[in-house]
Amino acid sequence: MTDSLRAIYATSGILCVLAAIVSGGVKAAGWELPVIETVWVRVTLAFFGASLLLVGAFYPAVLARLARPKMSTYVVTTRTSSITSTSGSLANPRVKSSTWGGDKIEISAARYERSGDGTSYTFFDSDGHPVREIWRSEVAKIERRDD
Questions:
Q1: In this predicted structure, what is the pLDDT of residue 141?
Q2: What's the predicted TM-score (pTM) here?
Q3: CA angle, 100 then 92 then 83, to 5°
Q4: What are the sequence ranges of the domains in the chain?
C-alpha cells in the first residue's frame, strides 16, 4: 500500500467520523453528505470511518510484522584444503601434507541467497538487512538448523 493511498484512507476515515458526529450535512472537495437523522446510520458511518482510519494508519505495519520471516541458525561448513610440500634433497624427498578447514560457522539469519554473479552467499536478518557475506569458493555446505 503506497503512502498516498494510506493518506486517502486515513483522511476519508477522519471525515466519516466527523460527519457522524455532526449528523452529516458535510460538503467537501466536490461531494456532499446530506443530514443524517437516524442514529444507527450515524453509528454505522462512524464505524466505517474508524475502520478506514485504522486501515490507513496500521495496516502496513501489521502486514510487515506478519510477513517477517523467522530467524534461523545456518551452519556453514567451510571447504577442506590441503597443501603438499616437499622437503629435503631431490634424491630423498619427504612429502608432507597439511590439511585445514572444514570448520563450522553458525550464522543467525532469516534467509540467505546467492549473489547475482554467483561468487558469494549473503545472509539477511528478518528486516532484510545483510548480516554476513561469505565467498562461495570457501563454502562446502550450508544447512539450516531448526531450533
A1: 85
A2: 0.44
A3: 15
A4: 1-67, 72-145
